Structure formats: C-alpha cells, structure tokens
Amino acid sequence: MLFITDNEFERVVSRARNRDIAREYYRRDYVVNVSITTDNRGYYHISGKVMINGNIYLPRVLVNPNSKIVSTDCNCIYADEYTACGHIGALILKVQELSPNTFPYRYAVDLQKRAQEEKIFELDKGFHRLLYVQCGCPYWYDLVENLAPHFDRTTILSFRCRPAKTIYEDHVSLLKAIEQKDAAAAHRIAGQHMQRYTENLSAIREAFPHYFKA
Fold first, then answer.
1. For residue range 36-55, what is the model confidence (pLDDT) as tens digits?
2. Which of 15, 105, 121, 194 allows an S-S link to 36, with CB 3.0 to 4.6 Å?
3. What is the pLDDT of residue 70?
C-alpha cells in the first residue's frame, strides 16, 4: 500500500523554504499530471508534471514497498543531494491527497478548464485590488494579500463546484451601487459578497472531502 507520511515528506524535502514552496505549489494546484506504476519488486515509480506560468517541471519519485522514498529527480536546478525541490514536494503532497490504491494510476487536469479558472481568479483579484486603490487604501490591499495564500485555494476550488456567475453578479451589483453613490446598498452587497466564503466552503467540503481532515 502506498502511504507517504508527513514525516517522510519533511525528511525528503529537508529545507524549510523548499517545503513552503512545495505547499504553495500544491495549494495553487500546479500539479497537473500524476502517473504511478509499480515494478516486480513492489516499488512505486511516481512521475508528475508541475506547470507554473507556462513553465513545465517533471519531478519523479521512487518509493519502496514500505512507502519510504529512496530517490527523487527533477528537471529543475533547485534539487540537490541535500534536499528535494518544491516541485518534488508538491508532487508528494498531491499523491498524499489522491491516495491511490490501484496501479497503474493516472491523474490529469483538464488544462483548458484550468486556464479558464485561473483567468476568472485573476479577474476577481484584480477587481478587489481596484476597489482598494480607488478608495486610496493600497496598503490595506497589500496587507490582506499577504494572507491570500490561505484563501486562494478555497477560491479556486469554489470555481470547480459553484458557478462563477454569482461572484460576477455581486461585482456588477456593487459597481452599480458605487456609481449611484448608494453607500447603504454598497455596504450590504459587500457584506453579502464576503459571506460567499462560508457558502463556498460548504460546497467545497461536499465536493472535495479528501481536502479536509476529520
């Protein structure tokens, strides 16, 4: 049975910064392809594709029958004999999430759909930033953005289980309230928009239960 523990992840990705990078790549769903095969010794040959801003990285991990990682490799320049890179770490985290139990195993992302999700995500963040800037509060946007990694993955996942139309309609309604200088309506719509997070979280828990610990 393939079961890579958190301790094994930290042992292989021994440098703290690389672990942080791996978790960020994993949270942003940059791992778009995973392939796992086994050999006659019972070893697991794991290969993946990590896509970041159009650049493709190809991490590989060899795991023994006891789920101990015996070797890693990547086509990037950041892995060395002392630590695995963030791409390898992200692949390990993705395998932990997928928890495959039959082999050979394949996982692949619909890249066209992913590109559409990322475009919506960029537009959503750009809209929020514009509001802060127009209100003369870019400092507060930057402050909130420092916490964004904790929420970005939730936002992306929400696009996969709830229609983005609701978010778009909130934005349109908010702009209309601002144009009409209706502060009360703008306040109400903004509050409603913020509450979408709790609605999305319930939908995400139902659609992706494996992302949450019991």
1. 999 999 999 999 999 998 89
2. 105
3. 97
> d(Cα 199, Cα 203) in Å, to the nearest integer?
7
Q: What global pTM score does this model have?
A: 0.66
Reported as type and span, the H/E element at residue 117 is: helix 111-134
Contact predicate 63/43, CB 8 Å: yes
Cα 72 to Cα 9, 45, 53, 69, 89, distances in angstroms: 12, 10, 23, 8, 10
CA torsion 122-127-131-137 (nearest 10°) is 0
Instruction: Judge whether 104 and 38 are in contact, CB under 8 Å.
Output: yes
The kind and range of the H/E element at 198 are helix 183-207
Cα distance between residue 60 and residue 200, in whole Å: 34
Over residues 22-40, the pLDDT tens digits come to: 999 998 889 999 999 999 9
Rounded CA separation 60/50 (Å) = 11
Going by C-alpha positions, the residue among 50, 62, 54, 61 that lies closest to residue 21 is 50
Hey, is 161 helix, strand or coil? helix
pLDDT tens-digit series, residues 102-124: 999 999 998 888 788 888 888 99
DSSP 3-state of 85: coil
